[in-house]
Every structure is written in structure tokens, then in C-alpha cells.
Amino acid sequence: MSVELRGITKSFGALVANDGIDLRVETGEIHAILGENGAGKSTLMNILYGLLSPDSGQILVDEKPIIISEPSDALAAGIGMVHQHFMLIPVFTVAENIVLGHEKVNGFGVLDLEKARSEIARISKEFNFDVDPDAVVETLPVGIQQRVEVIRALIYNAKVLILDEPTAVLTPQETDELLQVMKNLKKQGTSIIFITHKLREVQEAADRITIIRRGKIVGTALPTASQEDLASQMVGRPVDLTMNKSPAKIGKTLLEISNLTVTDSTGRELIHDISLDVHAGEIVAVAGVQGNGQTEFARAILNLEEHVSGSILVDGKDILGETVRGSLHSGIAFIPESRELDGLIGSFSIAENLILDTFDLAPNAKGLLMSPNTVTNEAVKRITEFDIRSQGANELVSSLSGGNKQKVVLARELSRPVKIVVASQPTRGLDVGSIEFVHEKIVQERDAGRAVLLFSTELDEVFALADRIAVMYRGTIIDIVPATISRSDLGLLMAGVKPKVSS
Amino acid sequence: MNKFKKYIEETSKSIALPLLAFFLAILSGGLLIAFSDPKIYKLWKSPLEFLGTGFASAGHAYLALIQGSIFDGNLTSKNFLLGFYPLSETFVVAAPLILTGLSVTLAFRAGLFNIGAQGQFIFGAIGASYVGFHYNLPPVIHALAAILGAIVLAGLWGGLVGFLKARTGAHEVIVTIMLNYISVYFLLWLLSTQTFLRKGRQDPIAPPVNENARLPKLFGMDYRINLGIFIALGVAYLIHILLSRTTWGFQFRSVGANTLAAKTAGMSVPFVMTSVMVICGALAGLGGAVQVMGSEYALTAGVAGSFGFDAITVALLGRAKPLGTVLAALLFGALRAGGLTMQANTTTPIDIVLVIQALVVLFIAAPAMVRAIFKLKNVKSGTDMAAKGWNG
């Protein structure tokens, strides 16, 4: 089945999210749509899936124009979608999740899952999915949960499958498996629209690539195109993907973590017995698949976790049990995992966000009274220094783009006198341009003699920045390796497998 | 110039909803008044008369409402200025309402939903009353002491809520609702004790506060208006400064807008919760003091009226801003004061005022409805703070 979009335009107020987009996906083709965050990829797919209606334009399936005004229309036309955030009910079984919304009952009015079970088993076997219909979804790894979503689409006869950033939550191994699944589906004649901003995956799986920038199609490419070429089309200017950094000049130990264990309120261990040193002038990356305790580890260093044992020496002084404020002011810059949730206050201005942890110190305040003029003037300086694109210091942070939001966090944390930088997923969800900026800043911090502890789930980022790599798996650090480790060995470590020759 | 234009735009956006909600409430209230007049049911057959009568009765009622709250020509025979007696009554009612309204407003800004202004008001009234009648102090000092008594007692009562929330996570909505009951029955019990019984009386009314502990009247004995309204306005300004200019206010607003980010930035959420609730309690308690020291003079079981509950409406209508709260409280003061005259001069019961108040809340809580009726875009929603209060 082929799908064609003709002249799709969609605006939200003054913002034109899609501007006359023409796209054709052939039968049995993996068509990658590449673009930065906010380029309009998701808008386009939501239009195709009936979640949004276009201002103008046409959708054709097998050359026949159809109208898709809600997802059920899309499903009926054979278009299925796997969202970035899964639409599964965690406490239900796989089969229950799949029949959701299409429940069949037997003669007694009782839910009949038999047919669904056998269908799931059939599809699972056909594509080598290895999914148990009776498993409870929350007990399944993320990769398998994603397959449940894929099965759901297939069971309702999807011939065109939209995958929205499907690899964001996967381990490198799971990613490889997903790419394999996509190829299998393709062999059976399913067309796949693969939305992503990760160049490597595009090159590996796609048959054709369409690049979107600011709501417009700016080019098409074949998977043989170079990463630099794809990236520069995506960003609209030449991009240098290699981070130029000089060898680390290692100084004294600034952060010394010993036997750090964190439990939740019921006593269950979240992270177990972590010991790690970070020296002045080096970047230690904590690599690992999302959800292996990185969040708790990072938060524990700032005393944001409650049940912690061990010790955290900042330049020789144990800060464990300090207040969060005390930890920050002991000389740690903290870039939290989620800008929106714990990094910034959206309804506050840029100026106010820049002083969230120094609001009561001179010159921001004299005694109880704050000095708004000083705060604004300082903010104006930071805005220039960190290239925060905004309408001014009083603009609300919620109206900034992701990259500029992160720059506000960086500007706040790196403008304090700090010795250590703890950065948790600092480039998650950012566009290529902003990633470059954040990376440069992090390397600058290192070169200025600070100890940098970087938490990242992105292998590219880990390899671009790290001087040493600590691998986290199931709440503990299973190995600390030099940055020269091979990609595949690191992938294995992240999956909990120690390669035979560990370095 | 541009900045000014932007400011006007922003302001009109944020006051559009309360104004429209109030307008709708007055409109629906008018319909209710019209249909509550029995005459109208005999006029079905003649549409013109039907409409005329309907308009007339609504018009009369609202006119009486204005007469009772702003200016009444009938009172001017002796002295023209007496015509403004209703306006002075509006201020008398508004003064405590501003203070309880600020209590709810401040809590909203820190992400807390203070349903407990009623109980805090009662404790303030108890404190002011006790210090007011039990001691004999020189002028000014006695009044200040009574106010202090009210603030301390009500501040502790409010602070208890914040402390419980910070320590145990107990939801402030539940806690304040329960504490309201305790306050009401504590007051009833207190009024039956020897200390609070008036000499020679058995009914639940405390001795009047001493002359020295009363708030001075502003325009002589003909009017009830007293210093209370200026206390309320002054405190409103202080709360505005607290929120916009002080480090405490910054923390309150941060915790209210994004608790997680505030915590991550090193602010102490327990400190904020406790201190905010202490101040909220003190504000509502000050309202109680103004009521006792300014107009009632004696503590009774009904001293709090519905000041603490109306405060929630006032804060919502005032969009959790000090100035908005003052304006909303003045409006509600006018409705309350005017409602009495309306009931006396027309057949319309004072309950219609309650209905209008309720409708205002209803329309504010349903911004989508207001938007649909007026075909508006971009009107800021009013439910965000109420919702936040619940989720907090």
C-alpha cells in the first residue's frame, strides 16, 4: 500500500508547522523522516494518523484521496502508529491491551480473549517477536512493550506503520533488534514511516530519507549520504559532528563517591554500592540504558534522595546529608534530567529562572528585599553570553524552545562558582545546533579545571565527550572503562554483559 | 510605549475572564429575579408586558442593590453625605473579606489550597476578643495587643496545617476542612465557659472589647466604617510586596509554580509550606480581629459569618493577585451590603446575592463556557490555580 501526502499545510497561530509538504511512501518501503525537534515531523504524522486535521492538503492511499479525521479512519485505511510514549495500560496483559477498544465478548457477555491470544501468537511467530500474550505489560522490558504496540497496529491490519522516534527509549541492542523487525515487516510488504533524528539508524534501516526543516521539506537523500551531509541539511548549515577536544589534563580528585547506596521508602535498593572518583579536568560519562538508576544516582549527589548511605566527598569534604542548597553551594553545578520538570519554572521569566538557586545572595538580594534591576541586568549579560534566543530577560521560559531552555539552565548553573558539574541527560530532546552548544560548554568546563560527571543514554554523546566511561546497569556501576572502548563492547556492557577482555 | 501596550493587552487578557464571568452571573441573576416575582406568571399571554415586568423587577432589584451598596438618595434629607452611608457599609463588609481573601490568595500562590480561612478567622476573632476584653491597656497599645493576639493565635492555627503537610504530606484541603469544624465547635465551647460569658448573661456572647481596643471610626458615629479598611488595604499592599519583591515571596511563588524545580534549586519546601500557612492563618486571623474590633465588638458564635468561605470565591475572582483580591472583595462587600437593602425594598430575597456569587465561581471555573459564549480566544483560564491547589 502506498501513501501520498499532497500540499499538507498546518499552522498553529503564527507558527506554520507544516508548509505545503508533499511526501510519497511506496509499498514495502522504509521511509525515514529526519528533522530536528520542532521541525514538524510529529505534526505531519499526527495529521496522517488523524490526530490533527490539516489546514489544507490531501491524503491519498493507493492513489485514491481519502479523508482522515480521526485515528479510527486511519486504522480503517490501514495506517497504524506507534507513539513515542506508549499507549499501554501497565497493569493489563498484552492481550488485554491489544483488544482495548475492540473488546469481543462471548455468549455470556464475558470478555473473550482467545482470538486475540491466537492472533498475537501468530504475528509474534511470523515476525519472530517473542511476545507472550499473557504477560503483564509493566513486567516487560521497554523493547518488548514497543513490540506490543507494533503487534497492536498489525492486528488491525496496518499496511503502513508510523514509528514516532521509536529508538529513544531503547538500548543499543534493542535498537538493533527493532531495526531488524522493521526489515522483516518490510519484506512482508508493510510500509514504514520512521521518524527520528538519529543519523546512524537512518543510514542503517531506511530506503529513502526525507529531511524536514522548519515545516518544509528541504531535501531527500539516500542512506548512502554521509552523516555530515544529512546533519547539515537538517540544521541548515554545515555541521561538524566531531567534537574537537584536547586530551584531558587530569588534576586532583574533586568528587569522590564511595559505597553510595540509595533505597526507596520501603527499603528497596535503587542504586547499590557505587564508588566513583571524578578528577579536575576530566569528563566521566555514566553510560547506561534509561532507567538503570542514573536518575537516582545523580539526584543522590545533590542530596535530593532521602535514604542514602555511603559518602560523597566534594574536594575532600563529605556533603552526604547536607541540604540540597548546601550541596549546590558546596560547589556543584547541577543540570537536572528534565528541563521542564525540575530544571526550570515555566511560568517564571528568564531572569527569575537564572537566580533560582542564588535568589537570596548578593547582588540578587539585600536582606529580605530582592533587587529586580540587578537581577534583570545580570540576566541580560547571561542571555548574550549563552546566546539565549529570546525577546528579553522578562520573557517567560515556557515560551522558549528546548535548546534555549537548556541554555537558561546552563547559564544559571555555570555562572556560579563551582568545582564540579553534574549533568544529567543534558542534550535529551535537543536539536543538533543546541547539542553542539551544550557539548562545547561541557568541554569548556572541563578545560577550566572542573570535574564533570555526565549522565547520558546516548552513545554518540558518551563517545564525543567522555574521558572515562562508567557503565550503569541495574542500579550499580558494573565497569569503568576508558573512552577507547568499542561501540559494541559498550553496548554489551550496557546490557549487563561483561565482554571477555575487560579493560 | 510598546511595553505599555503590551501591559494593557496582558492585563485585559487576564481580567477579561473575571469580568465576563461577573457579567454573566449578573445576567443570569437578573433572569432569576424576574422569574422569582409571582406577578410575571400571570402575564404569559402578553409578551410585551411579560418582558416589561421582567425587566422592571430585575431593574428594581439591581437598583436597590446599588442603593444599598454605593449611594442612596433617600438618606440625603438631613445631610447629603449620609447618602454615601451604603458605600461605607460596603467597606465595612469588605475589610475582613479582603484579609481572608488575601489568605487564600497567598496560599494559592504557594500552590496550596487554603479552605481553612474560616477557622483561622475564628481563632483570630477569639484572640482579639480575649485580649480586648480581658486586659485594660492604654489606647493604641491595647488595640495593637489585641491584633497581635489574633495574629499569633490564628498564625499558629494556620501554621499547624503547613507543618502537617510538610511533615506527613497530609493534604491541606482535608486538614483545613476538618480544622474548620474544630474551630467552630471550639468557639461554641469557649463561649460557654466562665471566662467568655458576659456577666449576668447565659447566652453565648463574650463581653465587648474595651474602648481602647476598638478600631477608631473614620467618619464619626453615624457610620460604622473604621480603620479596618485601611488595615486591609495596607496589608494587601504588603502582601503584594512580599510576593513580588522579597526572597520569601520568590520562594513561595517558586514552590507554587513548580515544586520540583524549587526543590532541585535548593529551596526548602517544608519551610515554605509552614511559613506560608502561618502567614495565611495570620491574615485570616487579622480579618477576625478587624471584624471584632471594628464592627462587632463582641465575640459570638456567628462572628465569622461566611467570611472564610467567601474568601475562596474572592481569591478566585481576583485571580490570586493581591490587587485583584481587593477589587473582588470590594465587589462582594457591595453585594453583601446591597443585598440587605434589596431584600428590604423589593420582594427579591437576599439569597439571590448568594446565587450570583455562586454563578461567578461557576463561570470562572468553566472558562471554556465563557469563551464559547463570547467567542473569545486567548482568555487566560482561571482554573489553573484551583487545580494546582488540589494536586499540590
UniProtKB/TrEMBL annotation, chain A:
<keyword id="KW-0067">ATP-binding</keyword>
<dbReference type="InterPro" id="IPR050107">
    <property type="entry name" value="ABC_carbohydrate_import_ATPase"/>
</dbReference>
<dbReference type="InterPro" id="IPR027417">
    <property type="entry name" value="P-loop_NTPase"/>
</dbReference>
<keyword id="KW-1278">Translocase</keyword>
<dbReference type="InterPro" id="IPR003439">
    <property type="entry name" value="ABC_transporter-like_ATP-bd"/>
</dbReference>
<dbReference type="InterPro" id="IPR003593">
    <property type="entry name" value="AAA+_ATPase"/>
</dbReference>
<keyword id="KW-0547">Nucleotide-binding</keyword>
<dbReference type="GO" id="GO:0005886">
    <property type="term" value="C:plasma membrane"/>
</dbReference>
<dbReference type="GO" id="GO:0016887">
    <property type="term" value="F:ATP hydrolysis activity"/>
</dbReference>
<dbReference type="InterPro" id="IPR017871">
    <property type="entry name" value="ABC_transporter-like_CS"/>
</dbReference>
<dbReference type="Pfam" id="PF00005">
    <property type="entry name" value="ABC_tran"/>
</dbReference>
<keyword id="KW-1003">Cell membrane</keyword>
<dbReference type="GO" id="GO:0005524">
    <property type="term" value="F:ATP binding"/>
</dbReference>
<keyword id="KW-0472">Membrane</keyword>
<protein>
    <submittedName>
        <fullName>Unannotated protein</fullName>
    </submittedName>
</protein>
<keyword id="KW-0813">Transport</keyword>
<keyword id="KW-0677">Repeat</keyword>
<feature type="domain" description="ABC transporter">
    <location>
        <begin position="3"/>
        <end position="239"/>
    </location>
</feature>
<feature type="domain" description="ABC transporter">
    <location>
        <begin position="255"/>
        <end position="499"/>
    </location>
</feature>
TrEMBL record, chain B:
<feature type="transmembrane region" description="Helical">
    <location>
        <begin position="223"/>
        <end position="243"/>
    </location>
</feature>
<keyword id="KW-0812">Transmembrane</keyword>
<feature type="transmembrane region" description="Helical">
    <location>
        <begin position="350"/>
        <end position="370"/>
    </location>
</feature>
<feature type="transmembrane region" description="Helical">
    <location>
        <begin position="15"/>
        <end position="36"/>
    </location>
</feature>
<feature type="transmembrane region" description="Helical">
    <location>
        <begin position="141"/>
        <end position="161"/>
    </location>
</feature>
<feature type="transmembrane region" description="Helical">
    <location>
        <begin position="173"/>
        <end position="191"/>
    </location>
</feature>
<feature type="transmembrane region" description="Helical">
    <location>
        <begin position="115"/>
        <end position="135"/>
    </location>
</feature>
<feature type="transmembrane region" description="Helical">
    <location>
        <begin position="90"/>
        <end position="108"/>
    </location>
</feature>
<dbReference type="GO" id="GO:0005886">
    <property type="term" value="C:plasma membrane"/>
</dbReference>
<dbReference type="InterPro" id="IPR001851">
    <property type="entry name" value="ABC_transp_permease"/>
</dbReference>
<protein>
    <submittedName>
        <fullName>Unannotated protein</fullName>
    </submittedName>
</protein>
<keyword id="KW-1133">Transmembrane helix</keyword>
<dbReference type="GO" id="GO:0022857">
    <property type="term" value="F:transmembrane transporter activity"/>
</dbReference>
<dbReference type="Pfam" id="PF02653">
    <property type="entry name" value="BPD_transp_2"/>
</dbReference>
<keyword id="KW-0472">Membrane</keyword>
<feature type="transmembrane region" description="Helical">
    <location>
        <begin position="297"/>
        <end position="318"/>
    </location>
</feature>
<feature type="transmembrane region" description="Helical">
    <location>
        <begin position="48"/>
        <end position="70"/>
    </location>
</feature>
<feature type="transmembrane region" description="Helical">
    <location>
        <begin position="264"/>
        <end position="285"/>
    </location>
</feature>
<keyword id="KW-1003">Cell membrane</keyword>
<feature type="transmembrane region" description="Helical">
    <location>
        <begin position="325"/>
        <end position="344"/>
    </location>
</feature>
